[in-house]
Write a structure and sequence with these properties.
Layout (H helix, E strand, L loop, with lengths): L6 H50 L20 E7 L5 E12 L10 E11 L5 E11 L6
Antiparallel strand pairs: 1-2, 2-3, 3-4
Length: 143
């Protein structure tokens, strides 16, 4: 009597292997895609926060070219997309005056600027993250 596998046994074995390996392959593929997306979001968030910190560190409300707005209309100024050296990401900055006079210097005028930084992956138009902050000058809070 010869030992070996019959054709039916081989077909059943191959079918079971396919039933097990196909979902496992899909699971591993989705895991890798999710890990790459999570890395993109984490790096983009860190880079956007760094840009916001840089903008917060600018002392002059009026003279900083990164915070320029259209005067006197107060329209929105869009800068970018600007590539970040050493990273496959770019940011777009939007600055606009949302209240008061953001163009005249002096302590007699008040103004509030809205600053939005949006991070994208280079070559992709879908934003990864968008951060918004406000800068105020001569605004009295409370009463």
């Amino acid at each position: 009597m010869k030992r070996g596998l019959t054709l039916v046994e081989l077909v059943i074995t191959i079918s079971l292997a396919a039933i097990i390996s196909i979902p496992t392959g899909i699971l591993i593929s989705e895991y890798l895609n999710s890990a790459l997306r999570a890395r993109d979001y984490a790096v983009a968030t860190s880079l956007a926060r760094a840009e916001m910190e840089r903008l917060d560190g600018l002392n002059n409300f009026f003279a900083a070219p990164d915070l320029n707005i259209l005067c006197p209309s107060g329209g929105e100024v869009v800068t970018g997309p600007t590539n970040i050296t050493g990273y496959p990401y770019a940011y777009t900055r939007r600055v606009r005056c949302v209240q008061g006079d953001c163009c005249t210097s002096g302590t007699s005028t008040q103004g509030v600027k809205r600053i939005q930084v949006t991070m994208t992956r280079i070559g992709v138009s879908t934003p990864l993250i968008s951060l918004i902050t406000y800068r105020a000058k001569n605004v009295a809070f409370g009463g």
